[in-house]
Amino acid sequence: MKVTVVGAGAVGATCADNIARKEIVDELVIVDIKEGFAEGKALDLTQTTSLLGFDTTITGSTNDYSKTAGTHVAVITSGIPRKPGMSREDLIGTNAGIVKEVATHILKYSPEAILIIISNPMDTMTYLALKSLGLPKSRVIGMGGALDSSRFKTYLSLASGASQNDIQATVIGGHGDTTMIPLTRLASCQGVPFSKILSPDQLEKVASDTMVGGATLTKLLGTSAWYAPGAAGAAVVESIIRDERKVIPCSVYLDGEYGESDICIGVPVVLGKNGIEKIVELELNETEKAKFKASADAVRNMNKVLHDMKVL
Ligand SMILES: NC(=O)c1ccc[n+]([C@@H]2O[C@H](COP(=O)([O-])OP(=O)(O)OC[C@H]3O[C@@H](n4cnc5c(N)ncnc54)[C@H](O)[C@@H]3O)[C@@H](O)[C@H]2O)c1
Ligand SMILES: O=C(O)C[C@H](O)C(=O)O
């Protein structure tokens, strides 16, 4: 199996590192537009092979996509990250052109590839890749919910003292500071609902901390996060490559599910060898449904910018 990671920056290199350590592919290719950068990251990672004991061939390429031929899964992380004070949506002007160009190059050499979109604003970039390339909806997957759900688990754990590994918690909706929906009603610790563990005020604080999780890190780091995003990207790749059929919230094209159509937005999906094997429809209450609709309206408004920019 072969995986390509486009963008050898903070998220791309961390994702590649995690994929290599998991030993889930024979070949890993990293591509970047910056001369020598992907080759350098690939060589550096290769030199961890004997230290970490994995056996994956890692190569780098400066924009030569012929090296990516035969890719099963391509992870797109190329583009600019936000700086403190910015929103993810502020990145659309630069990243839309990059994502469209990169996805086109990947598909030229690997027409059957499954695309994992990480570049922000991720829901809109996922929609752009799917629509501009006319790909089947099972093969274009936005990574956001996996990361947001892991942050939700971190904040639930910090508030309650429970182990993150005992927690089940899901974030749906857009991958934006105001659009994501941490499902506090459904969060549980080994079968015990968090509504029985934390007070309503504590749960509300956990939800709002989760929603601004990316912005909090951007303020601390001066740029956006990479360890958890890279690990979340690798977890999505792993479920596909190993055909694990894990349920992971991802941004996917909806065609009537959750009452929405013609939009990519975060919902739980089964990830297996064909990409999206199934969309899981959670039973939302009226409040959650209203939040999901508001989130979808905001994402749809952002998608309109793609037409204004004439990239779609
Ligand atoms: N979806 C998520 O959950 C999530 C999480 C973290 C970051 N992100 C997003 O991922 C993106 C990357 O973040 P980062 O911190 O790795 O940024 P970074 O600046 O460290 O890396 C981006 C890399 O993309 C490369 N690049 C730019 N244009 C390219 C092109 N046309 N072809 C190939 N490579 C190109 C750059 O040279 C750079 O090395 C950002 O848009 C960020 O907002 C998304
Ligand atoms: O916060 C960002 O801009 C990057 C990413 O979407 C994240 O959630 O870490």
TrEMBL record:
It catalyses: (S)-malate + NAD(+) = oxaloacetate + NADH + H(+). GO terms for biological process: lactate metabolic process; tricarboxylic acid cycle. NAD(+) binds at G7, A8, G9, A10, V11, G12, D32, N95, I118, S119, N120. It holds the Pfam family Ldh_1_N. Keywords: NAD, Oxidoreductase, Tricarboxylic acid cycle. Its EC number is 1.1.1.37. It comes from the Bacteria. InterPro entries: L-lactate/malate_DH, Lactate/malate_DH_C, Lactate/malate_DH_N, Lactate_DH/Glyco_Ohase_4_C, Malate_DH_type3, NAD(P)-bd_dom_sf. Substrate binds at R82, R88, N120, R151. Residues 1-142 form the Lactate/malate dehydrogenase N-terminal domain. Signal peptide: none annotated. Residues 147-301 form the Lactate/malate dehydrogenase C-terminal domain. The active site is at H175 (proton acceptor). GO terms for molecular function: L-lactate dehydrogenase (NAD+) activity; L-malate dehydrogenase (NAD+) activity. Belongs to the LDH/MDH superfamily. MDH type 3 family. Catalyzes the reversible oxidation of malate to oxaloacetate. This is Malate dehydrogenase. The lineage of its organism: Bacteria, Pseudomonadati, Bacteroidota, Flavobacteriia, Flavobacteriales.
